Amino acid sequence: MSVATDADVIVLGAGIVGAACAWRLAERGLRVQVLEREAVPAAGSTGRSAAGVRHQFSEEANILLSMASIAEYRTMPESDYRPTGYLFLVPQAQWDAHERAAALQRMHGIPVRTLSPAEAAGLVPATTEGLRGATFCPIDGVVDPHGICMTYAARARALGASFAFSCEAVGIGHDGSRWQVEGRSGRFRAPLLVNAAGAWAGGVAALAGLDLPVGPARRMVWTSAPLPDGFGMALPCPLTVDLGSGFWFRSERDRLIFGLANPADTGFSEGIDWEWLEPTWTAGSERFEWFAELAVDRRACWWGYYENTPDHNPVLGRRPGAEGWIDACGFSGHGVQHAAAVGRLIAQEALGEPSFIDIEALRIGRFSAPGATGGGERLVV
């Protein structure tokens, strides 16, 4: 049997969340061992993200996670942070809740503007039927998740962290003092383990005999052909979400990328679901009449996994009854937006320090409480 590699903490996953955790843990002087099932960092959901970052959340913990993370990304040249804004088009039925969320965001100093339907259509041409209003935040925008992840991984390595690639965890146990992980290319031991395995986090927990309600959901990102000269909308445009249908789009250089979540598309299905293009196209054309004139570049479309929880909020922190196990997963489409803050929080959790953001509402114990399966932040762009 091979000799086990010892560390202070094992991080499972080298996506943007795992890399952020590895850097911050190594920064605090811990010996960090990262295991990644793919051959390189950012090869899973991180590299396939739509790359939006926003402050416009309805729950305070998520607002604070975004504030801290985007503040960090703004200082990183590698993040390519572009404040193109987020525009939410809100139907009457959702207006009161959305307006309360905007008030909470402004309470934290976020410059969110409430717009009339006509004002929103002045930013992005849209039919206003059924809309009650809109919100717009100019400091929301897009980043380069791959660049951020690779930077975090490089910083972790510079501080002594080790990375084992093509090393999927296939067995996890605990000997009373340390977690023991059997990987495809070695054995590893540490008193602390951080589960940052993204869409695979539920399966990783199951290897250790733990129940974790995190599962994969496939999402498509469709890409238009280059927009023609004289296209009737200024670029870059904000990431725009029609809350009535869930359809979203944003500009990427001279193209648009767009999507619509299929709630039935769960599990580890692979590849692009071309049949889902038609309902996505229909939803876009109903709100944005000009959308029907676009062409799709089939070679430039892609797909990826989201890591969903029942309430669409992440699972963070130590797990009662599993000494040294720390969750950093279940972001339900918000991992890129919150990774920077989560790296700091997990380092504090590992060292037993108070969290700089209150994460009590995001701990695993909430799922054992009565009625703890609904609500949450359902938007995933």
Automatic annotation (TrEMBL):
Source organism per UniProt: Quisquiliibacterium transsilvanicum
- UniProt GO MF annotations: sarcosine oxidase activity
Q: Name one Pfam family in it.
A: DAO
InterPro entries this protein is in? FAD-dep_OxRdtase, FAD/NAD-bd_sf
Q: Does the keyword Oxidoreductase apply?
A: yes
Q: What is its EC number?
A: 1.5.3.1
Q: Does the keyword Protein biosynthesis apply?
A: no
Which residues belong to any copy of the FAD dependent oxidoreductase domain?
8-348
Q: Can you list the GO cellular component terms from the UniProt entry? A: cytoplasm
Descriptive protein name: Sarcosine oxidase subunit beta
EC main group: oxidoreductase
Can you tell me where the transmembrane regions are?
none
Which terms are listed as keywords in the entry?
A: Oxidoreductase
Q: Which domain of life is it from?
A: Bacteria
